[in-house]
From TrEMBL:
Residues 141-325 form the Cobalamin-independent methionine synthase MetE C-terminal/archaeal domain. SUPFAM superfamilies: UROD/MetE-like. InterPro entries: Met_Synth_C/arc, UROD/MetE-like_sf. GO terms for biological process: methionine biosynthetic process. It comes from the Bacteria. This is Cobalamin-independent synthase, Catalytic domain. GO terms for molecular function: 5-methyltetrahydropteroyltriglutamate-homocysteine S-methyltransferase activity; zinc ion binding.
Amino acid sequence: MSVTHSGVGSWPGADMAATVRLTLGELPTGAYLPELPGRGPGSDMVGRTCGAIRALAFDLQPAGWRLTDGSSLAQRGARSLLRQDLDVLEEQSQGFAGPLRVTLTGPFTLAAAVELPRGGRVLGDAGATRDLRDALVEASVDLVSQVHRRVPGAEVGIQWDEPLLGSVREGAVPTASGLRRYPAWGAHETSEHLRVLVEEVVARGTARAATLVHSCARHAGIGDLVAAGIGGIGVDADMLARPDLDQLAALLEGGLVLHLGVAPTAVPDVLPTVDALARQALGVLRPLELGPAIADQVVLTPACGLAGWTVRPATELLRRLGSAAAIVDEELAR
């Protein structure tokens, strides 16, 4: 086995068929079903998840998604888009065999993004936060099951995206007025909340190794995620501090998978060189002093999604990540 590469979350454009063909072709060991936010409301990270959840009802307001008493036109539209995406995946993946990830918004970011019926984020209501997580369990199990049925040769995994996890842990999520912040979540509280999601999904058929939390935020709490029993973690290399390296070493020694975001994505269409990508990866991995044994646990990725890019540079970035993965593999073996 060797260092591999993959993508993260969102992708530019509005053509899901072309995008699925591209990811299956360019990422034979790291294929995933991306979001295409360019198609409009309901097709972004949070919108897809609100469409996937059936146990709760949502509506889309100018401020974002909000819990409601009954399913709305916006939620039904998001559900229809997800169903279309799965149809396209089934059509384009005939004969496919190998790993295939589906993505939903993680429980912390979802609670920080979705509003209660009377205003304020779900994050501010402990009971509503638990209900949202439990609904996410059902949505995750159902989505994995659907992909298993549609792509029988796939080893289906699930990725929960958590760009707001660091803000939740630090108490930095603002209220609607902006005058105060929601209380910070402690390490034990964070781990236990996520553990319920992971354990339920694993108990209902998903391999633990095929579960992944991705957060491109600073202070995401790598140790807390490991303690929750997750199978893999995705991080932005630029957001790592010295204490994080110790936690990454423990993660890899424990056999978990590391999706290492080595390609900056904040400035659209700016392509780093292959050598720069490899240096970034080795700058994280070499200090761990774990040698070539960890190669098959490391996946090089962009730092975050690529929705703000255009298709050609985004595609080239995936190819450069593949070339960088080969260099990193050779260097780890020395």
